[in-house]
Known about the structure:
The chain has 157 residues and is mostly helical.
Amino acid sequence: MAHALTDPETSLNVTGDASDLTGKQLAAIPLLATGSHYTEVARAVGVDKRTVWSWRKKPAFVAALNAEMLSIREAAQARLLSLANKAFDALERTLVETDNDNARIAAVKLVLERLEVTMPGAAADEAEEAQSSTKIVLLDPKKASEELRRRMAEGGK
């Protein structure tokens, strides 16, 4: 399988074929991609650390390493998005359904702080409040939760 990605060391575009890699190189890639040090990787795959260091100069190795790192990053982002949805659901349940006033107040503060919400008349200058595109006025916790979801879907704006 051919890969064409950027070498993290040099920021150069490299192309390589993973079939050109040895078994030890293939075993080293996931270890390096997850942050293991060259010494640890060398010990794990049975080579000298200088050998692992030299592999980073091989386009096929760099491309396969970059592909592995990209895959790991994409998996982590997907998991975070999944957890974000669960967090929003829990926050909304706390805002709407809980009888615990302290928990509800903490949830409201979190939403309002994240949205940079100001209460009517809280701004020293009403013209400043009207011009601010990042501040909104919300009093209803359910509306605050809905607005938080909307803004997070837009990239946190």
